[in-house]
Structures are given as C-alpha cells and as structure tokens.
Amino acid sequence: MTPFRLTLMALALAAAPAAWAAGPSFSCAKPAGQAERLVCEDAELAQLDREVARLYGLASTGPQARRHPELKAMQRGWLKGRNDCWKRDDPRRCVRDEYALRIAELRTLPDARREDRRGIAVGPVPLRCPTVDGEVTVTFVNSDPGAAVLKTAQGSVVLDHQVSASGARYGGRLADGDYLLWNKGREFRLERPGLPAADCTDAAAR
User: Fold this and answer.
1) Residue 13 has what pLDDT?
2) Model pTM?
3) Alpha helices in 33-114 (DSSP H)
C-alpha cells in the first residue's frame, strides 16, 4: 500500500473519535422505522451514515454527476434495503453491512473521492492476485472497529477488522464459509471457502 493510502487511513482513524460525538445525517427526533432508530442509538452506525451522506453528496453534485442519472434511484433503492434490515436475525449487523457496501459502491465514482481527507474510507484498492480469476478490489471503512469490503468476480463481502499481532486482518463467516484478508504494507493474502489461499499485491502501488 502506498504511503499516501497509509496516510489517509491514519488520518481517518485519528479523526474517528471526534466524529463519533455527532449524530447521523438525518434528524433523530422522529426516526422513520427500526433501522433509523438503530442508527440514532449507535455511534458507529451514525458515523457510517454520515459517510454515506457525504459521499452521495459529492457524487450527486460533482463535475461528472450528469453521467450517472441513475444515482438518485440507486440511493432510494439502497435506503429501502437498509430499512428492510429489521426483518433479519441480526438487524444491527445488516444495517452496518448495508452502509459498508454502499460506501464501497459510491467510492467507485471519481466525484465521491474528491475530498478523501474529510472521510473515513479508503479505496477501492485494486489487488493483483495471479491465482484469482477476475478483478479484485478492497475498500477500507475506518469506523471503529472498522471493516473491509472485498469485491471479487463472485460478489462483495463485508469483513470485520480483527485484532492482529502483525499487519491488518479482516475476517467474517458467511453462509458459504469463512473469509480472511491479511494486509501488511502492499502485500495481501486472501482466503476464501473452498478455494486455495491467494497472495496478492496492491496493483496501484509504485
């Protein structure tokens, strides 16, 4: 990972405690449904909500906004999906994952990456994985405890930041098994259920 990316991650993590003092981007006086109530009562979810609102605002008002007329409809669809999390066994986890996935999705738009120093996300970082078919990217969401959104040809998964003695470790258990992503500098190691472990590097690093 380049020094620039590491600097962005450090700044985002350093700014996180101060940002937690604020609420979400919407008023909590009358939250609309269980998902919004969860966000109003949870500092990390409120932080993620502010980041989605920030990125959406940049993407919808930036120089390239006219190229993405579907953006507003996609945001409404995402809100519906977030609000439907009350149907899940773990609504809080569902809401957290929906926010992380939306952050990663919005950050694929160049306009949304115009003011990275104001946010808590880094990426998408393209990975070069010789033994993995298709494109692989990872977006880091530096809330507390944080997460990484791993995107492969099979889709996107949200991995939790986990304590590690060396480097950064992100993992999660999904319906098909355990996922693990290790990162140290520009080196990555990817473990997925039913597949050989893959060694990767930051494809954008110089």
Assistant:
1) 41
2) 0.85
3) 34-41, 43-61, 71-83, 91-106
